[in-house]
Amino acid sequence: MGKFTKKIIRFDIETLINELNKALADEYLAAYQYWVGAKVIEGPFSDLVKKELEEHSKDEYNHAEMIANRIIQLDGVPILNPHDWFRLTKCGFLEPKNFKSIPILKQNIQGERCAIGVYDTLLKEIHGKDNITYHLIGKILEDEVEHECDLEQILKNISMKK
Ligand SMILES: [Fe+2]
Ligand SMILES: [Fe+2]
What's the total number of domains in the chain? Predict the structure, then answer.
């Protein structure tokens, strides 16, 4: 990290890296939850939902990428061992047990709502203290809001056709 870059961060850097690693854990777990959901989904509307899940999985993976890059830029180390995903996650992992479209959608909506809450809180904490991370997390939050909206819309359409 450049010397001046360090100067413009008015937040404890170790705490910041730790928060970003928690977010990294959540993103990886979310990416996998969508990915595996898209693999096992079955029954009515599964083709439609599968496509959306696959898209979201890629978005979450991209979020993980963005967060890991920022951790490295801050001279931190991104989570090295997947064991730590479960130690650090705030939203956890919802294992799909019922493979039908509606329960899978509901589980993922729950995950998105958790992520939205977590990022909203993080943004409040770093507001005015680290503009780069603030901007980055803001972009991610925008995607999560869109994800929740898309899933809710699909759930609504499916429920109406049933
Ligand atoms: Fe995400
Ligand atoms: Fe998301």
Answer: 1
Q: What is the distance in A from the centroid of ligand 2 to the CA of 69?
A: 18
Structure confidence by residue, pLDDT tens digits, 95-143 = 999 999 999 999 999 999 999 999 999 999 999 999 999 999 999 999 9
Q: Model pTM?
A: 0.97
Cα 76 to ligand 2 centre (Å): 24
Tokens, residue 113: 């709502």
The CA 144 to ligand 1 mean position distance, Å, reads 6
Find all residues with CB under 8 Å of 22, minimum gap 6, and list them.
88, 89, 90
Calculate how far, in angstroms, residue 7's C-alpha sits from the geometric centre of ligand 2.
Answer: 32
Domain holding 42, by residue range, is: 3-161
CATH number of 19's domain: 1.20.1260.10
Asked whether 23 and 122 are in contact (CB, 8 A), the reply is yes
Distance from the alpha carbon of residue 4 to the mean position of ligand 2, in angstroms = 33
